Amino acid sequence: MFDPWTEPQLSASAEVEWAQRALRGIMTIEDIILGERRREALRVRGRLLVDAEEAYERLAPVARARGRTLLLRREGEDILAIFIEGVIRPEPNNRWVPILLAILTVISVHTTYVLLWVSDEFSLAGLWRNLGKGWPFTLSLLGILLTHELGHYFMARHHGVAVTLPYLIPFPMSLFGTMGAVIRMKDIPPSRRAMLRIGAAGPLAGLLVAVPITLIGLSLSEVGPLPPEGGYVMEGNSLLYALLKIAVFGRFLPSGGEDVLLHAMALAGWAGLLVTSFNLMPAGQLDGGHVAYALWGRWARYATWGVIGLLVVLGLVVWQGWLIWAGLVFFFARQQVAPLNDVSTLSAGEKALAVLILALFVLMFTPLPLKIVA
Asked: 219: which residues sit within 8 A by CB, 6+ positions away?
C-alpha cells in the first residue's frame, strides 16, 4: 500500500529546486509539471545524460528519502521522471497461512489421487486400504509446484522485490486435488530486467524438477494395449512430453493400439508440465506475460488478447476447458503492471532468455490436455 507522505507540503518553487538538484548530471530538464492529482505530484520531462539503469539506481533512493516513488517512462523521444507521493511499504509475511494451506493441500492431493486414480471404490475403506500408494504422486507433484514458486521467491528477493511465501491451493476432488500454487508480489519490479528474471525463474526451476520426475516415472511405467472398451481417460501430448516418451520408449505413444500405463510419478510429472505450460502463456500477469512485457513492453497487451482469442477458439473446437481459462485470463490476469523503470532495455542475452521461455510455452502447450474415452 502507499503510505501518505506525512511531511508538510512544500512550495512549488521548493519542489522545482529539489527536482533540479536531484536530476543534475542525470537528466536534462525541458519542463517540470506539478500535478494536481496527488499521485502524480511531480513530472519532469527531458533527456537522460546517463544509462537508464544507472539513472534509476541513482534517483530512486533520493526519491524514497523524500517520501516518493520514482517511475521512469518513455514518451516519444523524451523521458518522463515521475515522482509519486508515497512509498510502498509491504506488510510482513504471514507464515501460518502458507503452512496451513500446505497441510490442507497435501491432504487434498493425496486423498484425491488415491480415490480417483488408485482405489477401485470411492469410499473411506478404499482410501484407507490404498493410502500408502499415493505418496509418490503427492510428493512429486507438490515438489514441482513448490520448486516453481520458490524460483520466483528467491529471484524476487534477489532483486529487492517483496513477495509472499508460496501458497499451495487445495481443491479437493478436482482432477489432482489442487489448483496449483501462487506467489504474490507485494512490490513493483524495479526494471524489465528484474521482471524477466522473476517471471522466468519459476518455470525454469520447476522444469529442473519436473523433467527428471517425468523421465523417472516413465521408466517405471509400462506400455500396454489400450482397453478394448471405453471408460478411461488419456492424457494429452505436448511436444516436450511426446519427446520424453520417445526418449524412454523409443517411439511415439499412443500408437499401434498401445499407450503408456502411467506410474504415479509419471502422472505427477505430466501434471507438473501441464501446470507449467498454463503459467507460460504470454498473457497479463502469468509468468509468460511478465516475460512478454519485459521483451515487448506495452506491445505485450496484444499478445494477451491473442492468447484469449486462441483459448476461445480452442475451447469451441478442441477442449471446452480452454473457455474457462480464457475467462480467467480475461477477468483476472490480463492487466499488466509496468516496472518502475520502464525505460531500460534488455541485453542480448536477456532477450535470448525471453525467447527461450516463449519457445518453452510452444513446446509444452497441450491443445487437448485430457481425452475421455467413453
From this structure: 248
Could you report the per-residue pLDDT of 308-320, keeping only the tens digit for each?
999 999 999 999 9
**CA–CA dist 305, 309 (Å, integer):** 6
Contact 282, 292 (CB under 8 A): yes
Helical segments of 114-238, H only: 124-129, 135-158, 192-219
Residue 127: all three cell numbers together: 482410501
> How many Å from the N-terminal Cα to the C-terminal Cα in the chain?
52
What is the fold of 2-88?
Answer: Gyrase A; domain 2 (3.30.1360)
117, 267 contact by CB (below 8 A) = yes
Give the three cell numbers for residue 97: 497461512
Q: CB of 165 within 8 A of CB of 153?
A: yes
Rounded Cα distance between 155 and 358, Å, is 19
Strands annotated E in the chain: 2-3, 31-33, 42-46, 68-75, 78-85, 87-88, 167-170, 178-182, 222-225, 232-235, 258-261, 370-373
Count, residues in the chain: 374
Q: pLDDT tens digits for 108-144?
A: 999 999 988 887 777 787 788 888 899 999 999 999 9
For residues 24 and 41, give the distance between their C-alpha atoms in angstroms, rounded to a whole number.
19
Question: What pTM does this model have?
Answer: 0.91
- Chain centroid to CA 33: 37
Nearest to 146 by CA among 163, 169, 168: 168
CA–CA separation, 369 and 374 (whole Å): 16
Phi, psi dihedrals of residue 302, rounded to the nearest 5°: -70, -30
- Residue 334 to residue 325: CA distance in whole angstroms: 12
3-class state of residue 244 by DSSP:
helix
- Listed by start position, the domains of the chain span 2-88, 96-373
Q: What's the grid cell of residue 166? A: 508460496
